[in-house]
Amino acid sequence: MTITINRNDHPLPDDPRTTLLDFLREDLGLTGTKKGCDHGQCGACTVLMNGKRVLSCLQLAATVRGAVTTIEGIANGEDLHPMQIAFLEHDAYQCGYCTPGQIMSGIACVAEGHAGSDREVAEWMAGNLCRCAAYGQIRAAVRACAALRSETAE
Amino acid sequence: MSAPVLRRNGTPTASGRWIAGGTTLVDLMKLGIETPSELVDLGPRKEALSAIEETAEGATLGALATMAEAERHPLIRSGYPAIHLALAMAASPQIREMATLGDNILQRTRCTWFRDGRSPCNKRRPGSGCSGVGGDEAMAILGASEHCMATYAGDFAVALVMLDAELTVETSSGTTRRLPVSALHRLPAATPAIETTLDPGDLIVAIHVPPPNWTGETYVKLRDRASYAFASASAAVALRLEGPIVAEARVALGGLATVPWRCRATEAWLVGRALSVATALEAGRACLTDAVCGAGQDHRAQLGIRAVAKALLDAAHVGQRDTE
After folding, report:
1. Beta-carbon neighbour count of residue B16 at 10 Å?
2. Which run of H or E residues covers position B281?
3. Are B101 and B207 in contact (CB under 8 A)?
4. CA quadruple A52, A58, A61, A63: dihedral sign
5. What are the residues facing A48 on neighbouring strands?
């Protein structure tokens, strides 16, 4: 059995209790995904599984079904993902610790079609806490990325 | 604690657990509250047990469908608004993508004393006592006993109980049985550690919701913050109005009781009445008549009354608009 992270296959960890989060950070050295509360309450560990956002701290690595994408897997070489660019342009962070989770959640939020208004983004980004309270800039970045995406699609 | 054995087929023993989304189980394993000897991964059954479809008896939802899959399903969105709202306002988008419907129905209490792993708790360590009794924490004000006053925290099951939904349960011997959702969660009474009527190895495989025959239905959830919070109080309501008069009513409460709490006496009281703000508030008060509020908890009964009243008025408004 293997697990696919950012298009690379890896053998499963031996201990079935290993969370996807610890597997990423401790076994694979992919430390972009952050450990905040480790109990599914803060969203800092958000990654994509088959394109859907999940909390890697509550996901056992051995029960992952499908491909995992982390913050390390969204840029195309030196070209940042549009959501990364939007976060830079809107200064959507202070300390930056929640930012990888916010960006992964933001990508899913836009893909789901939940970025139509500030209020909608606030509701659908509610699983990602920011203790610096950069929420206004985060909402602006997610909405800008959604607008860019719909322009590109037209 | 030794590592549990992970298997991908078979049935867990009494000391083992099924694992689907894992959002409750993995959390409680980290807290040392769940210490399963083995985990049986339901991932291989995901495709077979996650269909959501319209049937002759209403809607059937596979128990391994995620909360997010059910929330965005057109059948649930268009035909079952109370269920849709209960799912949409539960947890966070990430947790809804992970947790299955079966997971969510069986989620464990968020009681502080249960979760801290140390305090006396009859649910966690039978016979050790209940740390909630006599305190000022937000405990259950309906359905509690001297042995346990932990609140049932979920939303979805409250809507299911209100709608008379049933479960198909697969037993460890491979047979199936039907179980009303209202008969799943047990009142704590003297044995709070026994939380459901399921036997070891039982698996909820499907949820059946009767066809909607309502002029309006809704789910109102009052929370300490605007999103991503458990209910301080919630109400699931369905109404069939004939003109302005209630012909049939369903009411259930969440966030205030030890189990999803159906209010049958209030339902009977509502029949034959016209819904006004005064009627709706009186119905709300009737739902909370038996509430026992601890020190500093009176406001929670008030929240319950207002959740019911708001849900009734919202459901009546939708009903009138639909029949115009």
Report:
1. 19
2. helix B277-287
3. yes
4. negative
5. A53, A69
Number of Cβ within 10 Å of residue B50's Cβ equals 17
pLDDT of residue B319: 41
Kindly give the interhelix angle for A135-153 and A82-89, rounded to the nearest 10 degrees. Answer: 140
Half-sphere exposure of residue B302, counting CA atoms within 13 Å on the CB side? Answer: 4
CB atoms near residue A109 (< 10 Å): 26
State yes or no: pLDDT of A31 exceeds 90. Answer: yes
> Mutate which of B25, B73, B97 to disrupt the A interface (most A C-beta within 10 Å)?
B97
Residue-level pLDDT at B324: 37
Helix runs in chain A, H state only: 20-22, 82-89, 99-112, 118-124, 135-153
| Residues A76-97 pLDDT 10s | 999 999 999 999 999 999 999 9
Q: How far is the C-alpha of B316 from the C-alpha of B248, rounded, in Å?
A: 12
Q: Do B228 and A62 touch (CB under 8 A)?
A: no
Is the distance from CB of B126 to CB of B193 less than 8 angstroms?
A: yes
Q: How many residues does chain A have?
A: 154
Q: Do the Cβ atoms of A142 and A111 come closer than 8 Å?
A: no
Amino acid at A5: I
Measured between alpha carbons, how far is B265 from B249 in angstroms, rounded to an integer?
A: 10
Of A59, A62, A127, the CB nearest to B92: A127
Q: Check CB contact under 8 Å for B26 and A124.
A: no
> Which DSSP symbol is given to B100?
B
Q: Which residues of chain B have pLDDT under 70?
A: 1, 318-324
pLDDT digits (tens, 9 = 90+) for A39-62: 999 999 999 999 999 999 999 999
User: What DSSP designation does B44 have?
Assistant: G
Q: Which residues of B touch A127 (CB under 8 A)?
A: 91-95, 228
Distance CA B250, CA B260 (A): 13
Do residues B186 and B201 lie in contact, with contact meaning Cβ atoms separated by under 8 Å?
Answer: no
pLDDT at residue B1, rounded to an integer: 60
For the entire predicted model, the pTM comes to 0.96
8 Å CB contact of A17 and B29: yes
Q: Name, in order, each residue with C-beta under 8 angstroms of B76's C-beta and a sequence gap of 6 or more.
A: B52, B59, B61, B70, B83, B84, B87
Residue A154 binned pLDDT confidence (cut-offs 50, 70, 90): low
Q: Is ipTM strictly over 0.90?
A: yes
pLDDT-above-90 percentage for chain A? 95
Q: How many CB atoms lie within 10 A of CB A18?
A: 17
